[in-house]
Amino acid sequence: MSRTLHLAEQLIARRSVTPDDGGCQQVIRERLVPLGFGFETIVSGPDDFRVTNLWALRRGTDARAPLLAFAGHTDVVPTGPLEQWASDPFVPTHRAGRLYGRGAADMKSSLAAMVVATEEFVAAHPAHRGSVAFLLTSDEEGPAHDGTVKVCEWLQAQRIQLDACIVGEPTSVDRLGDMVKNGRRGSLSGRLKVKGVQGHIAYPHLAKNPIHAAAPALAELVAIEWDRGNRYFPPTSWQVSNVHAGTGASNVIPGEMVVDFNFRFSTESTPEQLKQRVHAVLDHHGLDYALDWTLGGEPFLTPVGSLSEALVGAIREETGIDTELSTTGGTSDGRFIAKICPQVIEFGPLNASIHKIDEWVEVASLEPLKNIYRRTLHTLLA
């Protein structure tokens, strides 16, 4: 059994559903101690939602050389119905060349590969010029209020400057290395409450139906071209996720309708611009409404540079694949790191099974994944 596979199994075996780290960071810490890393543990959050964060740093011999951080999360999403799993989600299990368990793909295999890659790199280059670090949290799959963002705030206070960061999210689609993320779209959510007047459905003139009032405005919002995207981002999208109105009775006009919606937006639009355009439509239709906004994250983009070139080259050398730089998909902790680090790229194993029942990773992909991380370290820090 390879060291990468063994460590991945150790991490999967630890029940670390958000915000519980389950001891994963201690396992990783014990592997990094012999390499000469220094550590800072940052615990944050209320008593009923305590989050564990870890910063680990090994300085290089050249203060002018870059600092590259491996970033990731030790927490996993809930398992869902246990009876639907073919095996215990916290007992690493092999079937047909796959390693099964919660977190196998998202993202404990990446963490294992990063640690072993670092061990091999330090052994080969004990006097490496650049610095290598780990930024880990147990609150990525949850609200993310006390996770990576808190570590980034601490790093700023300590005046520690990151030059490059690889986030181990599962980005590959069909083959390991066929896609990396050099950016992510922003996320802006809204909860719209349209006010009406409740009444008997047989007497509409004595009531005001908020559904009827809002329908033309919603249709207009659906039809808007918010922007056309750019060479890195697809166009901004607006989607309704939930609509609720009514008492459950068929003879009552509702007094209020609630609509939840979300923007996934590119760097061509700002949150303020999107808000203004939505309010303009709602006001044009004369709605009596209240609208609460939640900014989940700003978009970020890492243009082609030293990090992307090193990672793309490592993928090509290890797999023969010319990878695709992409900004598709959901948000990640990269949105926080990008505010303090000029180059952030996400790369990890296949994402076909993430958050699903019987989550898995291909066993044969673990050593190439580790080698890609190690090659990237060599290019940037040796």
Write the layout of secondary structure elements.
Elements: H1 3-12, H2 24-32, E1 38-44, E2 51-58, E3 67-73, E4 93-95, E5 98-100, H3 104-124, E6 131-137, H4 148-158, E7 164-167, E8 179-181, E9 183-184, E10 186-195, E11 199-200, H5 210-223, E12 237-245, E13 252-253, E14 256-265, H6 271-284, E15 289-297, E16 300-301, H7 306-319, E17 324-326, H8 334-337, E18 344-346, E19 360-362, H9 366-381
Parallel strand pairs: 3-6, 3-7, 7-18, 8-17
Antiparallel strand pairs: 1-2, 2-6, 4-5, 5-19, 9-16, 10-14, 10-15, 11-13, 12-14
Helix pairs in contact: 1-3, 3-9, 5-6, 7-9
Folded structure, characterized:
The protein is of the alpha+beta class and about 375 residues long. The chain has helices at about 5-10, 25-30, 105-125, 150-160, 210-225, 270-285, 305-320, 335, 365-380; strands at about 40-45, 50-60, 65-75, 95, 100, 130-135, 165, 180, 185, 185-195, 200, 235-245, 250-255, 255-265, 290-295, 300, 325, 345, 360. The chain has a 6-stranded mixed beta sheet with strand order 1-2-6-3-7-18, with helices on both faces. A hairpin with a 6-residue loop joins strand 1 (about 40-45) and strand 2. The protein starts with a helix and ends with a helix.
